[in-house]
Amino acid sequence: MAKRSARGKKKAAKKAVGKKARFVRAKHAGKAAPERDAGTGEKKYGRRKDLNKPGAVAIDRLPEPQRSIARAADRMIRTLVPGVECVVKWGNACYFADGRAFASLHQTRAGMNLALPGTELPDPAGLLVGTGKTMRHVKLKDESLARSTEFAKLILEATRAGFEGL
């Protein structure tokens, strides 16, 4: 079977609407297009419905085994850091102490990542991975790592460092 050229694909994707033709993309089929700003013409997306809700909202919607790993990490953080506040930001559970963010939980296929601020955190156990400019993360593949003393030490160091400006 012959391959279609790029131009042929575009023609196949066109759909006639009255006298005009427009492109229909499969990933947006059946969805309402976002509104556009009257002044700039840029897309306007609504605010997340879960923004600033308790972090448990983000954790409870995770599938297993990520949910149990996230709950174990959440328990460890809450026991170590007095007065910690956990809220949903960018769809993830983010942890704040003294008004500064110091950690956030992110879902992966194999488990969870706990993002921590700074690239200079002391890590003798070698748990931190990544090459980010402002943060590193810990790969949590099971609950046992979230209960370890090395993980606890990293969390305490991260609360001292904290993210600036969040």
What does this protein look like?
With 166 residues, the chain is of the alpha+beta class. It folds into 2 domains: 39 residues, no CATH class; 107 residues, Aspartate Aminotransferase, domain 1 (Alpha-Beta Complex), CATH 3.90.1150. Helix content is 28%, strand content 27%. The strands form 3 sheets. The protein has a 6-stranded antiparallel β-sheet with strand order 5-6-7-8-10-9. Strands 1-2 form a two-stranded antiparallel ribbon. It has a two-stranded antiparallel sheet with strand order 3-4. A hairpin with a 2-residue loop joins β5 and β6.
Strand order across the largest sheet:
5-6-7-8-10-9
Main sheet: strands, sense, barrel: 6 strands, antiparallel
Unreliable sequence segments: 15-21, 24-29
Q: Return the CATH architecture of the largest domain.
A: Alpha-Beta Complex
* Cα-atom radius of gyration: 22 Å
> If you average the pLDDT, what whole number results?
78
Q: How many individual β-strands?
A: 10
Summarize the SSE layout with pairings.
Layout: H1 6-13, E1 14-17, E2 20-23, E3 35-36, E4 43-44, H2 55-60, H3 66-80, E5 85-89, E6 92-97, E7 100-107, E8 112-117, E9 128-129, E10 135-140, H4 143-146, H5 149-161
Antiparallel strand pairs: 1-2, 3-4, 5-6, 6-7, 7-8, 8-10, 9-10
Question: What are the main properties of this structure?
Answer:
single chain; 166 residues; alpha+beta; Aspartate Aminotransferase, domain 1; globular
In short:
With 166 residues, the protein is of the alpha+beta class.
